[in-house]
Amino acid sequence: MTQFRAALVQMRSTPSVEPNIASAESLIREATGQGAVYIQTPENTNILEPDSARLFAALTDEANDPTLRRLRSVAAELGIWLHIGSLAIRQTDTKAANRAFLIAPDGAIVARYDKIHLFDVDLANGETFRESDRVRPGAEAVTYELPFGMLGFSICYDMRFAHLYRALCQAGGAEILTAPAAFTKTTGEAHWHVLLRARAIENGAWMLAAAQGGTHETGRQTYGHSIIIDPWGRVVAEAGIDPCVIVADIDTDEVARVRGRIPSLKHDRDYAQPRLPMHLKGAAE
Question: What pLDDT was estimated at residue 143?
Fold first, then answer.
C-alpha cells in the first residue's frame, strides 16, 4: 500500500485544555468524514498558555493527560492513524516535554517524539524568549513505518535544522516528513513556505505540517497555513489562518521517482571542517 489520504487539522488552541480537546475531536471527525486515514494535529494541541505558572497548573504527566486519553479513544473509534503534533506533558514542576504521539487505529501509542531544538533568543529590542526555561529537549530522532510509508517526526523550530531531516531520511528511511507547528505570524510570513519546501526538496520527501493559526485568546498571533508539499516541492494543499481541515491524496511511490531523478541522498561526502584564519582563531581563543 503506497497511496493514502492524509488530513491536517489546523487549530487555534486556547489556555484551557477542555475546549482544545473538543475542537481537535470535532476537526478529526471532519477529516475522517473526508476519507482521511492519517490525520495530524498541530504543535500545542492541548494548550497554548504563555504564563508558566498557569501552564504548569494545567499540565499532567503522560499517564493522566486528558487530551491524550480522549484522542486515543477517538482514533480507536474511527480506526485512523492519528498523529498528535504535540502535547505539553509535565516532566517536573517546572519542565514539560513538547511531545508528539502517533496513535494506531486500535488506540495504542506506537511512537513518541520529543522536540529536540528549542527556541532561545535575545533580541536587539530587549525581548528575550527562552523555550528551554520550561521545556526539556528531546535527544532522539524518530521514524515509524506506517502501512503506506516511513514517517519522520519533527516539531516547529526543528525545521530550521536541515541535518535532522537528512538523518530521518538517510538513517531512518523517512519518505513522509512532518513538522506540526505553532509558528508566529512574523516568522511564518518570512520563512514558513521556503523552509518546508526546502526540507521536502532536499530530501525528495513528502512534507506534512499542521499549524496553529490566527489570533489566540492571549493575543498571540500564529501563522496558520497548514501545508502539504510533494517530494518535488510543489504545494498540493494549503490552509488559510482559521481552524479547518485540509486533505490530499499521498502516493509514496512518488518519493522513489523523485529520488531517482535527483539522487542527492546518495551523494553526501565526508569533508574536513573549515579552519578559522589565524587572526580570527586567536580572537576566539
Answer: 98
